[in-house]
Write a structure and sequence with these properties.
By secondary structure, the protein is of the alpha/beta class. It folds into two domains: 149 residues, Rossmann fold (3-Layer(aba) Sandwich), CATH 3.40.50; 174 residues, Dihydrodipicolinate Reductase, domain 2, CATH 3.30.360. The chain is built from ten helices and 13 strands. The strands form two sheets. It has a seven-stranded mixed beta sheet with strand order 12-11-7-10-9-8-13. It has a six-stranded parallel beta sheet with strand order 3-2-1-4-5-6, sandwiched between helices. β5, α4 and β6 form a beta-alpha-beta unit. It starts with a strand and ends in a 6-residue tail after the last strand.
Length: 343
């Protein structure tokens, strides 16, 4: 099959390399708002030792719009956030299955519109919530569903970045809850199979002033109440110099488990013992490398009609609703019901 890639930046380059490894992908067509960057990525992939395995070739086009006349079977959207909605809508109009990095759109209205468009077109839109494809998170979901944990009483999820993003990223990021915590919110719904009925969130600024200047926070926490009474706690920060840390903990009446705890998790036990120095994860691309590969394999299966969409736009909308509820709770200092933000 022929796959198009819109976006040749950091995550786009990561996806391109993964797509080149998939035997079903015979050709990859790359485009970017910066045509030179797209050409550089295509050249780099073609000049790799042995060339891209299994591919007839990788080529770049000068404009993103050319992707829609390139005879594609599927499109991967890894462009700038403000371009997501338009690219997904164009793919739907062309009847082209699309994988899109989160968010589908920069606001609720745009996300709601894509959900409606995808339903009307009957074309799959897979959203890039890669944590669903992490082996530990998948195992946690299976353990809970099997009854091993008994009934669930507490969930804890964290997203700790080792360093803040560039200052210029913050104004268009959507804020900590929409940009970062939304992964935890989606994962909690996915693993537990439950909906969130109300949230209480708060945030703080202890680091760079550019977060505060843009109405954002560098650290945030939320308490979620699920529809069966389970309590979930989410924590996130831009300042975890020990390394990147993303964990999910489930506590039940029979057993407790944690996903994301391994020899590279940047946590030190005290009192300290003689241990080998840790090699902590540098960031999310490294921590979830296998998950990124797995979600693209899933997309190829979706395009081929071999499996159902594992992360449809309706799920992205639900996660966005919860991020909006957390944001509202933080701003107004009160408990917010999920129905308050739902359309």
């Amino acid at each position: 099959m022929r796959i198009g890639l819109a976006g040749a930046g950091r995550i786009g380059a990561r996806h391109a390399a993964a797509l080149c490894e998939l035997p079903e992908v015979e050709a990859l067509v790359v485009a970017d708002a910066d045509a030179a960057r797209a050409r550089a990525l295509a050249a780099r992939l073609m000049s790799a030792p042995g060339g891209p395995p299994g591919l007839a070739g990788v080529r770049a086009v000068d404009e993103v719009g050319e992707l829609f006349s390139a005879g594609l079977d599927g499109l991967v959207v890894a462009a700038a956030t403000d371009a997501h909605a338009d690219l997904v809508e164009r793919a739907l109009s062309a009847g082209l299955p699309v994988f899109c990095e989160k968010p589908l759109a920069s606001d609720l209205d745009g996300t709601f519109q894509i959900v409606a468009s995808a339903k009307k077109a009957g074309v799959p839109v897979q959203v890039g919530f890669q944590r669903r494809f992490d082996a530990g998170n998948a195992a946690a979901r299976e353990a809970l569903a099997s009854g091993r944990l008994g009934w669930l009483h507490t969930v804890r999820s964290c997203s700790f970045d080792p360093a803040p993003p560039p200052a210029e990223y913050v104004p268009t990021s959507g804020g900590l809850f929409r940009d970062c915590v939304i992964h935890d919110l989606d994962l909690i719904r996915f693993v537990t199979g439950r909906d969130v009925v109300r949230v209480m969130a708060s945030g703080a600024n202890r680091g760079e002033d550019f977060f505060r200047e843009n109405g954002d926070v560098d650290t945030g926490s939320a308490l979620l109440v699920l529809d069966d009474g389970t309590l979930a706690q989410v924590s996130a920060t831009r300042y975890n110099a020990a390394g990147y840390d993303a964990r999910l903990e489930l506590f039940g009446s029979k057993d407790s488990i944690v996903a994301g705890l391994d020899e590279r998790t940047p946590v030190t036990a005290v009192p300290e013992h003689d241990e080998e120095p840790r090699d902590p994860y540098a960031g999310f691309l490294e921590r979830f490398s296998d998950a990124y590969d797995a979600e693209l394999r899933a997309f190829v299966d979706v395009v081929a009609g071999r499996r159902a969409n594992p992360c449809p736009p309706e799920d992205a909308l639900e996660a966005f609703y919860l991020a909006e509820a957390c944001e509202l709770s933080m701003r107004e200092g009160r408990i917010v019901g999920a129905e308050e933000v739902r359309r």
